Amino acid sequence: MKNTLTSLLSLFLLIAGYQAIAQSEPAKREFRAVWIATVKNLDWPSRAGLSTEQQQREIQEMLDFHQKNGINAIIMQVRPSADAFYFSAEEPWSEWLSGQQGKPPFPWYDPLTYFIEESHKRGMEFHAWFNPFRALVDVDRNKLLSINHISNKRPDWMVQYGKNLYFDPGIPRARDYVSDIILDVVNRYDIDAVHFDDYFYPYRIANEAFPDTTSYEAYGSGVVNKDDWRRQNVDSFVESINYRIKAVKSHVKLGISPFGVWRNIADDPLGSDTRAGQTSYDDLYADIRGWLLKGWIDYVVPQLYFSIGYPPADYEILAKWWSQNEAGRHLYVGKGPYKIDNNADQNWSKPNEITRQLELDKTLPAIKGSVYFRAGTFNPNPHGLNDSLQTYYYRHKALIPQMPWLNAGAPQSPANLDASMSPKGLILSWNEVDKRNEGGYYVLYRQAGKSGPDPENPANILAIIQKGESIFIDQDLKEKGFYTYLLTSVNRLHQENPGGATVTVKIKRKDLR
């Protein structure tokens, strides 16, 4: 009952908000994603040791759920701690998959292949999320690790900090090893992007120094300041992995989701007007602003898991700061629905904190979308968030924004769009012309009347159809009269051919279902 009342209150406030602001259509192009965390079974699988059938059913149900919410990309954690949610010749199967590190799913299947295929079937991009330098979560010396785990093979690359084990980023060969692992996935799997979160060097632990004196003495020659040397190590890794990804598959993007504060203004006049206790630059040694300026990454998703008005780190201040510092790359904002009714900041108990943030985003053109942490927190419908997305913010389908610096040339248009009525609905069929458009898709627009649909109006998007299909059945005709359809072709980098095939049909009352 409480959830129902909360949802109704949220919808009431949302409707009242509509009356206070000008009605605006959702964007035709918008990145709408969720993170799927696998570490400790946070999102998937629901527990370790499920059968293959159970794991696959959970994948399908999760993707269907988020597709209904309007999500068009997922970011799945495929390597949480030098382990794998895919077949790897170098690293063991994750314990959070099978219950025992190194043990494959049974019956055998490759979860990453399955996740990618199911995502693409639903018109979703698949971003493979790696934790590059975390080697083991919650170190337990009595814990049985796979003999194939890198900490057993190369203990000289490892350092313990707090309860976790890490690769030492100061060791060049360790960085190269991690890059090789990532490139193996880029080579073998049809992913759309490589994604890193905020963990490069770990967050500082009070009164505990990160134990990299040995590697600093071995490899830090000429760099007087150890902090600068640490940043150079991470810089080198990011620059190298971007170059290597593009050399193998130029369409695969590199995205990074840093902690929400690059630097505080008290430490740097270029920083944000915040008072964060730790920052990406000073504590994680991740100079995300520098990487954007140098063009080393394709998109940034700052983790703005703060409320509007939160004194140490205000969402509004940070959203505006990142909008001024995205350097021409794509900016998507990381949002924290996991905090709803679950945080000391009482703003997260208000029924419309996330929707207030979405409204603010509309005023900042540099923001091209949102990523939500995390997939499991949408169920059950916190503060009516699912209702808000489905009925307003994501009520129309959206294409993923195009990145001008990644250009494969628009594909050829489909030909001979035809329509015929059947008991199942209006059957639309076409001829596929550009068979080279691997990973591409079609966009089918529909508009009442005899005029061609305006492809810039997202309300006209009827369906996004994967390449290889040559038929679609429109079962959603509710009024008699003329309808005009437009079918365009889009490549996997989301470049749309401005031309297309059209057909106009007359629907009679007897045709309506």
Task: Please tell me about this protein's structure.
- It contains 13 helices and 18 strands.
- It has 513 residues and is α/β, with parallel strands linked by helices.
- It has an eight-stranded parallel barrel with strand order 1-2-3-7-8-9-10-11, surrounded by four helices. Strands 15-14-17-18 form a four-stranded antiparallel beta sheet, with no helix packed on it. Strands 4-6-5 form a three-stranded antiparallel beta sheet, with no helix packed on it.
- Strand 1, helix 2 (52-68) and strand 2 (73-79) form a beta-alpha-beta unit.
- The radius of gyration is 24 Å and the shape is globular.
Mind summarizing the main beta sheet?
8 strands, parallel, barrel
Neighbour order of strands in the largest sheet? 1-2-3-7-8-9-10-11
What is the 3D shape?
globular
Low-confidence stretches are 1-9, 11-22
Please work out how many helical segments DSSP would assign: 13
Number of beta strands: 18
Percent range of helical residues: 25-40%
What structural class is derived from the secondary structure elements? alpha/beta
Query: What is the gyration radius calculated from CA atoms?
Result: 24 Å
Strand content: 15-25%
Measure the end-to-end span.
36 Å
The chain-level mean pLDDT equals 94
